[in-house]
Amino acid sequence: MSLKPVQARTAGRCHLLPLLLLHLVPAVLLLLLSSSASASASTVVTHLPGFDGPLPFYLETGYVSVEEDTGTELFYYFVESERSVSTDPLILWLTGGPRCTVFSGLAFEVGPVKFVLAPYSGGLPQLVYNPLSWTKMASILFLDSPVGSGFSYARDPKAYDVGDYSSSLQVQTFLNKWFIDHPQYLSNPFYLGGDSYAGMVIPLIAQYISEGIEKRQQPLINLKGYLVGNPKTDPKFDINFRIPSAHGFGIISDQIYEDAMKSCKGDYVNPTNQLCAGVLRKIENLISEIADAHILYKKCVVAVPKPFDDASRRKFLMEESIKINAAPGRPSLDCFTYGYYLAYFWMNDNLTRNSLGVKEGTTSEWIRCIKGLPYTFDMPSSIPYHLNLTTRGYRVLVYSGDHDLEVPLLGTQAWIRSLNFPIVDDWRAWHLDGQAAGFTIAYANNLTFATIKGGGHTAPEYQPEECFAMAQRWLNNEPL
């Protein structure tokens, strides 16, 4: 399968910040570039601020240089499997957005720590061990990608202008360099995993790795497949199926749905007439009344910092110490987003930065999902990559929280069906503790689709027990 030609990038490092860096004046830029350091660095973390006692798992953090001429470095958290390090799978975990930090995956989805949800009154939020961490069954390499996410940074402001293809190539470069530094994991079964927009680029990254394997490029990664949750895939499926899903969830009426079908003729992505555009506005207004990431949850303040103007941004970027200049809106304690609020203060504490080995001067304000940096959505659809990889025999698990309206399961089912694979295990319930935990269907070419009953857009956040059981069975090559 031919891929869109892209100019590959390599690696380097220095001081800078992922926040619309193009606003930096040259003099400030030169000041920030005055120091230099090695192209890669790692830290073994034995204690974390706010966590009682030594960590009961192996945690390593670090940077890998992926583009030398622009000084682009990607930050990672590596947690070894708590079961069998030598034989358990290794998963590269990415988070969506694009440009949400992978710390969301580590602390809110599949990683070994979680926040104590207590009212915040200053100081350091507390962490506890997560007994449903997927590190019970696999080693996980959490990666802040694309550059600008979390603690990943670049020396050259222009380096933040990436897209689907260029950022995926940087992930491939990251993996090659990481495995050279960690050859003891090369024999472990390797998988890619992630939710939301990560599901768009994961098949592309897997494609790049697969081509490297075919060319016998070193290091030879033991790629076995990938798993994606509520994955962005193709707007004609992801967006078009929001309308029938909203109708099925009872958010829009029969009449509004019928008007949409009649006026838009099945195309809700590109309205071609005023009647269609009007009914779509009406539908979006109705959807805005609920939390579309999980329609049953409260609609809460999203815990992201408030935007600030160019003048305050320039001043902020020049600060050497960490200043919380744009504190996020505070959700109520019973809101799903309260953990995100706590994470903001925990990550912006110098004790946390020091323990994680974050390089001074590279990221001033940690933001869970950063907005305002350029990103090119240059891959219109990931379906060709899904088709190519499954045809080559790689294992794939696609799962959907069934209460998500951002990437509804109806659209995910539809693009999977468009592959025209024969069914090898027809639609049935899968169970946990004697109860249906969701429904599943298995196709030829090692493709499995599963729903998570009660799950939202990032299913492991909402239904951790069910997702733990699903992942464990699938990674163990057992039927769900």
Q: Major β-sheet, in short?
A: 11 strands, mixed
Instruction: Output the strand order for the largest sheet.
Output: 1-2-3-7-4-9-10-12-15-14-13
Question: How much of the residues is beta strand, in percent?
Answer: 15-25%
CATH class category name of the domain at 21-237 and 375-475 = Alpha Beta
Q: Number of helix segments?
A: 15
| Cα separation of the termini | 31 Å
Overall residue-averaged pLDDT value: 88
Question: What is the tally of beta strands?
Answer: 15
Shape-level CATH architecture of the domain at 21-237 and 375-475: 3-Layer(aba) Sandwich
Q: What is the topology?
A:
Elements: H1 26-32, E1 40-45, E2 59-67, E3 72-79, E4 90-94, H2 103-109, E5 113-115, E6 127-129, E7 139-143, E8 162-163, H3 164-181, E9 190-195, H4 198-214, E10 223-229, H5 235-238, H6 242-248, H7 254-264, H8 274-287, H9 310-318, H10 338-347, H11 350-356, E11 375-376, H12 383-391, E12 395-401, H13 409-417, E13 423-432, E14 435-443, E15 447-452, H14 459-462, H15 464-475
Parallel strand pairs: 4-7, 4-9, 8-11, 9-10, 10-12, 12-15
Antiparallel strand pairs: 1-2, 2-3, 3-7, 5-6, 13-14, 14-15
Q: Explain this structure to me?
A:
The chain is an alpha/beta fold. It has a domain at 21-237 and 375-475: Rossmann fold, CATH 3.40.50.1820. It has 15 helices and 15 strands. It has helices at 26-32, 103-109, 164-181, 198-214, 235-238, 242-248, 254-264, 274-287, 310-318, 338-347, 350-356, 383-391, 409-417, 459-462, 464-475; strands spanning 40-45, 59-67, 72-79, 90-94, 113-115, 127-129, 139-143, 162-163, 190-195, 223-229, 375-376, 395-401, 423-432, 435-443, 447-452. The strands form 3 sheets. Strands 1-2-3-7-4-9-10-12-15-14-13 form an 11-stranded mixed sheet, with helices on both faces. A hairpin with a 2-residue loop joins strand 13 and strand 14 (435-443). The longest helix has 18 residues, at 164-181. The protein is globular and about 60 Å long.
